[in-house]
Amino acid sequence: MSRSKKYQIDKVVYPIQKFIQNEKSGGLVLGISVIVALILANSPWAHDYHHFLEHRFGFQWDGKTYLEYDLHHWINDGLMAVFFFVVGLELKREIVAGELSNPRKALLPIAAAIGGMLVPAAIYVAFNPSGEVQHGWGIPMATDIAFALGVLYLLGKRVPLALKVFLTALAIVDDLGAVLVIAFFYTSDISVSNLLLGFGFLVIMYLGNKAGIRSILFYAIFGIGGVWTAFLLSGVHATIAAVLAAFTIPANVKLSEDDYIRKIKNYLDRFQEADSNSKIPTLTNEQLHILDEVKSNTDKAIPPLQILEHSMHPMVTFIIIPIFALANAGVSLLDIDIKEIFSTNVALGVALGLLIGKTVGIFLFTWLCVKLRIASFPKGMNLKSLLGLGLLGAIGFTMSLFVTQLAFSHEVYKVQAKIGIFAASIIGGILGYMILKSQSKNGSEN
Length: 446
Known about the structure:
By secondary structure, the chain is an all-alpha fold. Helix content is about 70%, strand content about 5%. The protein is built from 18 helices and two strands. The protein has helices at about 10-20, 25-40, 45-50, 70-95, 105-125, 145-155, 160-185, 190-210, 215-235, 240-245, 255-275, 285-300, 305-330, 340, 345-370, 385-390, 395-405, 410-445; strands at about 55-60, 65-70. It has a two-stranded antiparallel ribbon. β1 (about 55-60) and β2 form a beta hairpin. α5 runs antiparallel to α15 and α15 (about 345-370) packs parallel to α18 (about 410-445).
């Protein structure tokens, strides 16, 4: 007799779980957050919206305040560090056992990502060759993986899986490029002592990995309390600490797949044979002991890296990224003077860098790789679908907005960059969707 029972709360929880597990949902929530930020910034509550982000807080000890920053800074250096930590986990997983683990398979998305970074930066610098505005060259280099994949998943099964894998690998390499750009070109004055202290904590985490420590708490204490804090105080952007810390998380298992299957089968047999409380909805001590062993062995069969990635991904997608968008996407369009938008070439450089640079860079470098027989197209990809993917690569929201905050101190330049990001991302997303949709129709007719 089955003991399964459905409760009223399941009617609420199940649809939420289904929404979170849907690949399109992250892009949808991000899009709504951007729209809400724009509405707030252009509403009667605009002053309260901006003032709220200016509230400062820190930690007090013995009458002294430490790590005192405004809310906007905490979001960009604190919450976004969690985002970059998950990016680091994805990067390590792809390098260890994913698309980037096979050099032959990895060449094509790596080449596409490099082209999608170099060409946009070159286009931006061509329009903004000197002065403070030149600092924005890193803005059009980044692809927003949530939005780009969200648009791609709108097409459903009509898009070959190979295209989704290719775009994911491209975006992950693109994220690595953005991290390196932030580390080397968007870092303020460096405190060598704090930086060395941060690396010291990284060494402890690495040695813990090699010693077989799998406790998430161990890596959390040294990662947040040690590496992240030291990097934050060093002047090197704290998000870099998050990526480096992610690479120290163990990606191996303590129990092989074959051993796990054998043990679980044994536990199931024991559980089935064990005495049970058939008339009351509780378990016997023997059953509890067996289930504890199942849980313990299941934990040993999953790499801590994947446990963290799997558990943190929903939080990043549905909490951290939307909060970041709410804090950074609010541009007051009512007070903008058209002449002010084009007082420099920042908006033009960002927009063309993303829309033209990303598309041309991804398309050209991929095509050259195939033409020179360095790599071959994945199954289901052709030049038309590659063009569509290149246009989706022009969607820059999250990372581009993040680099904008690092690149400029002048508020006008930030607004100009954001307008360029919005324009290119919207146009690129629509055109990419239309091309891939027409491609899928032609493919189904053939």
